[in-house]
Amino acid sequence: MKDILDVLNIRYQAVLESSSDSLFYRNVHTYVDWIKKNPKLNAVVEDSATEYRNKHGAIWDGRTGGEEDGKERSRQTYKLEKFSLYASNFVDLEMLIYFPLEIYMTSD
């Protein structure tokens, strides 16, 4: 596990030390790609995504449609997203940087 953490830290530092926008985006792509292709790390992210999906569904299940109900459910959603590995950080990197670059790099 130490090897995984060392590589993860090296890739993370490369992102932080990027000297240009294009290098930053490439380094983020490499960072996310490595997580997605590492079975142990990908399992952690997938478990976090499943947990988030289940909890988010539970928050909004049985919605009454009232304004106060909506505000309370929104507050709960915000709290859930704040403390979810998947929702607070990974999904943004994946959806906003990784997937667009992956499509760009692998298509004609």
Gist?
The protein is mostly helical and 108 residues long. It has helices spanning 2-16, 21-37, 39-60, 67-82, 85-106. The chain has five helices and no strands.
Describe the 3D structure.
The chain has 108 residues and is an all-alpha fold. It has five helices and no strands. The protein has helices at 2-16, 21-37, 39-60, 67-82, 85-106. The protein is elongated and about 50 Å long.
H/I helix tally: 5
Distance between the termini: 37 Å
**If you average the pLDDT, what whole number results?**
93
Taken from the alpha-carbon principal axes, the silhouette is: elongated
Poorly predicted sequence stretches spanning 5 or more consecutive residues: none
Percent of sequence in beta strands? under 5%
Q: Which structural class matches the secondary elements? A: mainly alpha
Q: What is the H-and-E element order?
A: HHHHH
| Biggest sheet overview | none
**How many whole angstroms does the radius of gyration measure?**
17 Å
Number of strands: 0
Helix content: over 70%
Task: Summarize the SSE layout with pairings.
Elements: H1 2-16, H2 21-37, H3 39-60, H4 67-82, H5 85-106
Helix pairs in contact: 1-2, 2-5, 3-4, 3-5
Entry keywords:
mainly alpha; 5 helices; single chain; elongated; 108 residues
